[in-house]
Design brief:
This protein is α+β, with helices and mostly antiparallel strands and 455 residues long. It folds into two domains: 299 residues, 2-methylcitrate dehydratase PrpD (Orthogonal Bundle); 127 residues, 60s Ribosomal Protein L30, Chain: A (2-Layer Sandwich), CATH 3.30.1330. 51% of the residues lie in helices and 7% in strands. The chain contains 20 helices and eight strands. The protein has a four-stranded mixed beta sheet. A hairpin with a 4-residue loop joins β7 and β8. α16 packs across α18. The termini are far apart.
């Protein structure tokens, strides 16, 4: 009788099987778009105060090395770089999302594979392969656990990202089967943070820690450290303790044949705030533009959203930029007042302004269902938004947005993605040479040494 493989063993088989030449072109194209995006937001994020203080933490904790700290002239060893870059990538909450697990994928996986690739002097093609491998393993584990793990309060970017970063790190390092198994199990058994992180430095900290954990797990496995290969199935394992036993490892059978980067796909943000606010913000913008309205025209705004949106956007009267990123009231008010939500709007001066405060007081957010007339749409994501705007003269305007611009269902155009990248680079005050990074990433498989990516 053949002994049944553990989940870690199944994931290991998948990691071993990924090869760049067999990955479909559309998958690689989306992966490169994700790389462009995460590099841009990491450059911009390195300017954030939370990224700076976590870099200072890393400088006291880790050794020097040959791995770039993006947006700076500093270099650290692989764990330190993975941590610092992971924190910067998520510092502005401008990085991508995926509804498989409701995770920020690229902000964890990219710092890990970049660090290993630079430490080892690997080619850009190896970095790209590790990136795709890490994302797909993360998304597959997410599907196996279902989004119930997120609903239970676990911050899946940390829990699942650590496993994905370990998979990517093992792939970049070219590990054999045994070392890959232990890299994955060492990362999985120690992964986790709760969703209480929102609106604080802890969110960026644990993004960095998830990237670092994948790298350190790979380093430990290389030295001979072993982890519990039954980490998912054990009675005290990840599935039972974190998810009440909900776990379907058959999801791993499609790894390498079906791609999470395609289905459910990756959402690239248009606004530097929690993605839960984007559909509602787009709905408000649609009304404002269509009717030529100004802030003084508005009597009230009533927003109906699903439970997941209300559970993430918990700051109706934000006092800091970090809280504003998790405030639907701020996102809507910014759209009304400025016609957009940009990095320059995330300041205490903007938040404390009279017009912002007066407008936020006119916004009502409630949890409800999709209006009947919109339920047949094929463009509905879990974080849809329905807006009813009442004017000072008694007009009633309505708009439903099922999926915002930038979602996998309505992706950013190449022009919009490049503009976002350039805006992020300009926000960081990058010099002209930094703008060649965009073209380097789109042709990353031609890069001879990952150490040259940011040079």
């Amino acid at each position: 009788m053949t002994e049944r493989r553990t989940a870690i063993q199944s994931l290991t088989e998948a990691v071993m099987s990924f090869q760049l030449e067999t990955i479909p072109e559309d998958v690689l194209s989306i992966a490169k778009r994700c790389l462009v995006d995460v590099c841009g937001v990491t450059l911009a994020g390195s300017k954030a105060e939370s990224a700076k203080l976590l870099f200072a933490t890393a400088a006291e904790t880790y050794g020097i090395g040959n791995c770039d700290i993006v947006g700076t002239s500093h270099r650290m060893n692989a764990p330190g770089a993975a941590f610092a870059n992971g924190a910067a990538a998520h510092a502005l909450d401008f990085d991508d999302n995926c509804y498989a697990g409701i995770v920020h994928g690229s902000a964890v996986i990219f710092p890990a594979v970049l660090a290993l690739a630079q430490q080892r002097g690997e080619m850009g093609s190896k970095l790209l392969l590790g990136f795709v491998t890490g994302l797909e393993v993360e998304f597959a584990v997410a599907k196996a656990l279902t989004n119930s793990i997120y609903d239970k309060g676990w911050w899946t970017t940390s829990v699942l990202g650590a496993i994905g970063s370990a998979a990517g790190a093992a792939k970049v390092a070219g590990f054999n089967r045994e070392m890959t198994e232990h890299t994955l199990s060492l990362a999985a058994v120690g992964a986790g943070a709760t969703r209480a992180v929102r609106g604080t430095t802890a969110k960026h900290y644990y993004c960095g820690r998830a990237a670092e954990l994948g790298v350190v797990s790979a380093m430990a496995a290389k030295q001979g450290a072993i982890g519990p290969v039954g980490v998912f199935e054990d009675r005290s394992g990840l599935a039972q303790v974190l998810n009440d036993g909900i776990f379907d490892p058959t999801e791993f059978e499609a790894l390498g044949e079906e791609y999470g980067i395609i289905d459910p796909g990756v959402d690239i943000k248009k606004y530097p705030v929690c993605y839960a606010s984007h559909a509602t913000a787009d709905a408000v913008k649609e009304i404002m533009v269509a009717d030529g309205l100004q802030a003084n025209d508005i009597a009230s705004l009533i927003c109906t959203v699903p439970t997941i949106v209300a559970s993430n956007l918990t700051y109706p009267r934000p006092r800091t930029a970090a809280e504003a990123q998790f405030s639907l009231h701020f996102a809507i008010a910014s759209i009304v007042l400025h016609g957009d939500i940009t990095l320059k709007h995330l300041t205490t001066e903007v938040l404390s302004s009279g017009p912002m405060k007066r407008l936020m007081a006119k916004i009502i957010v409630k949890v409800g269902d999709i209006p009947q007339q919109h339920r047949s749409s094929n463009l509905i994501c879990p974080e849809w938004g329905y807006v009813e705007l009442n004017t000072q003269w008694g007009a009633h305007k309505c708009c439903f947005v099922g999926s915002p611009v930038g979602s996998a269902l309505r992706p950013l155009s190449n022009e919009m993605l490049k503009k976002k990248f350039n805006d992020c680079a300009q926000y960081k005050n990058c010099n002209s040479s930094d703008f060649t990074l965009y073209d380097k990433i789109l042709n990353i498989e031609l890069l001879q040494n990952a150490q040259d990516l940011f040079s």
